[in-house]
Amino acid sequence: MSAKSNPTPSVRSLPPGLLRLLSYQQHWLRGDVLAGVTVAAYLIPQCMAYGELAGVEPVAGLWAILPPMIIYTLLGSSPQLSVGPESTTAVMTAAAIAPLLTPNGSNYSSLAALLALTVGGICVVGYVARLGFLADLLSKPILVGYMAGVALIMIAGQLGKISGLSFEAETILGEVQEFLSRLHQIHWPTFILAALVLSFLFIVQRRFSTVPGPLIAVLLATAAVALFNLDEKGIAVVGAIPAGLPYPQLPSVTLDDALSLIASAIGIAIVGYSDNALTARAFAARNGYKIDANQELLALGLSNVGTGLLQGFPVSSSGSRTVIGDSLGSKTQVFSLVALVVVVTVLLFLRPLLALFPNAALGAIVIFAATKLIEVPEFIRLQQFRRTELALALITTIGVLATDILVGVAVAVGLSVIDLFARVARPHDAVLGEVPGLQGLHDIQDWQGATTIPGLVIYRYDAPLCFANAENFKQRALEAIAAETSSVQWFVLNTEAIVEIDITAVDMLSELHRELASQNITFAMARVKQDLYAQLKRSGLLMTIGVDHVYPTLHTAIARFEAAHPAGNRMERPE
After folding, report:
1. Based on the domain organization, do 59 and 180 belong to the same domain?
2. For 81-119, what is each residue's pLDDT tens digit?
3. Is 204 left (phi over 0), alpha (psi -120 to 50) or beta?
């Protein structure tokens, strides 16, 4: 997906999306057009369902996708990512706005638009501060568990729509309990219609994976309402849709409301950006191109700003729409521009058709989408790989379900950071020795018959040295020396995994050097990278250790040890 020739420096300074359009190749057009039309057919009912899920008018879901189709096309670094309304941010939007509603709910759309503007502003600030690396804070187990929790919340939130009931409960467990206790009150025509739509979607997905199932479901459900006058028999429909397209405007809200949304906006920005970056990376790896994680912050931020100005709600990336585009041969964001034309055509000329769409079918589409977020095979894979990974996923799912969904975001990020610190604070270590018949030096715990060089301990610590693990390192290094059967004369620290140190680690290494010197043990370092060497020099630790005791390779360190201590001069450790 590169240009035919190397662009000039002035051209390279253009946004990546625009640069890609300027180097567009004609043979990409067929795949982009086919993908654009099909994605539009899928996203129209999907985005309406997500609008309903977010608590705004269903048509606002279509309004919300219009700005990203243009803004991300120009600014985004992924040629295939579909940005717009998405299930997770829709659920989080509803959770964030609920406490701020007026009694009649008249301020809902303004709050949703303000939330989108705030999320966009946070992402743009993150871009300026170059915070793209924050997407890495959410590990795979955390994301798997979080998405499962969100999926269950989505399903519970649609029970009222598919049953024709109104619930008073405000918690997930409460909604489920109320639904089960009121089964005798279900509006059966509504429930049967939802069940038929859901069954249809699963059948189409299984047998005809390339067919736009949601679009066909929309058409069939709408046709059923029109032919059998189902709206007159108690089945709720979307209703009249405002004519034309929305116009840009600032939301009318109070300063208190704006301040109250900041915490929620930060949570939505973290989750939305993480999903955006991870999805983009997945398709980049599959198709052999690269994305710019920091550029994604800018593209997502300005997409949300545009959505907020057009009375939408926070948006992120859609994995399902991206998959559809990829399967049909999308090569650039031209597929988004094609989809934009289709959506605008529907909004301008096909509104009466959308007005008859039943809410029960929207609920069925949301439930169908939610089931794709519960990755049972991933839970099984985590269990097979490491039980602690599965535990992280399950704790995150429970955290999302047992608390407010935004608290679940904090739980997920917190667990990711704790897991990271746990690995850094207590990493793997090894004493290296020789294995008969095998070249090189290896962890003596991994090989039967492995032995260390008498008088020499070569110790490897598999993490950067910092305040979190400094004492752990010292303790385990001394234990490695104490475990030797012969008298130790040299201790060589293999720094291949130590890319940097902090001042706490500097002081600890100075203490270790003094302690070893008091036992007549020489402290040396091997495989020291240039960045680490510079840090040792700035801290003064290099002078303490001595430049002549810092070696580029393990073999040079061993050779120097053997020259200083010939085999005949090495002593056995006294019993």
Report:
1. yes
2. 999 998 888 988 988 898 888 777 778 899 999 999 999
3. alpha
